[in-house]
Amino acid sequence: MDLIQSVLMGIVQGLSEFLPISSSAHLVFTSNFYKVFKGIEIVQESNQEVFLDIMLHLGTLIAVLIFFRKEIMEILKALYSGLKNKDYSSKDFKTGVYIILGTVITVLIAFPLNEVAELLVFKPAVVGVLLIFTGCLLLFSEWYGKRVKDKKDISITSSILIAVAQGLAALPGFSRSGLTIATGLLSGHDRTVAARYSFLLSIPIILGASMVYPLIKLDFAEVVTYNWIAIIAGTIVSAIVGYLCIKYFLKFVGRFSLGIFGYYCLIMGIVTAVFFGFFV
User: Which pLDDT tens digit goes with each residue over 193-237?
Assistant: First the structure.
């Protein structure tokens, strides 16, 4: 792994973590296209590349924590105050409970899929097919969302459905933000409400993926030998791009359809499935 690959993947992670186009799929695509370009066999994935992926997720975690710092503090205060005073009526308290519940549901669904997800890293053609599904779901949710009344607040029912969608997004090609926002639209919420809740719900999961899970899986004696200049550069790029992506994506969804991302997923999925399925 070199500096160019790390920075390139940092840009891809920062954009695709929050855009509804599947960050895991695009990291798989970027890594494998880069290997094809450099003449490296796709099956060769080092532990250093796995660690880079973890650090890139840490970068986007930093981005979402900074951007939503006020909302996060209000939710934490509401949870503390609600439990202390036994008053569970505030919107922020309910949002906090929904995020906790959603995180538990996500883990219960995503954990059994982890081994399958790791295998798909070496099968970009299959990931392309799953990305096609993401595109179709985005287009359908936009069509359906225009025909139902917008709900301003997330309900417990929609929070559970969104959490299920986030759990399924453990598979590369199933966009986390794409599936969760689409589920929000199908549950009757407008794009901005669905997107903001999707980003807040992502925080515990990204935290687990970038910090808790590595403590179990990684050999830290090996980590010290990695190319840390490249890793740190990629992480910083991921955080900066991720912050800007959140900022402008929320403005975008307030005014425009997600259809453009649906069509992008369809095209990218088809191209990838055909390229890696028949030519590599």
Answer: 999 999 999 999 888 876 666 666 667 777 788 889 999 999 999
Radius of gyration of the chain from its Cα atoms, rounded to whole angstroms: 19
Q: How far is CA 89 from the centre of its chain?
A: 30
Alpha-carbon distance 60 to 246, whole Å?
A: 10
Range of the domain at 179: 3-279
> How far apart, in whole angstroms, are the C-alpha atoms of residue 180 and residue 170?
12
Largest CA distance in the chain: 63
Write out the E strands in 33-112.
none
DSSP state letters, 207-228: HIIIIIHHHHH--HHHHTTS-H
Per-residue model confidence as pLDDT tens digits over 24-46: 888 878 877 877 787 776 655 56
Q: Among residues 12, 20, 4, 14, which one has the least CA distance to residue 180?
A: 20
Do 34 and 42 meet the contact criterion of CB atoms below 8 Å apart? no
How many Cβ atoms from other residues are within 10 Å of residue 60's Cβ? 29
Total domains in the chain come to 1
Cα distance between residue 109 and residue 176, in whole Å: 13
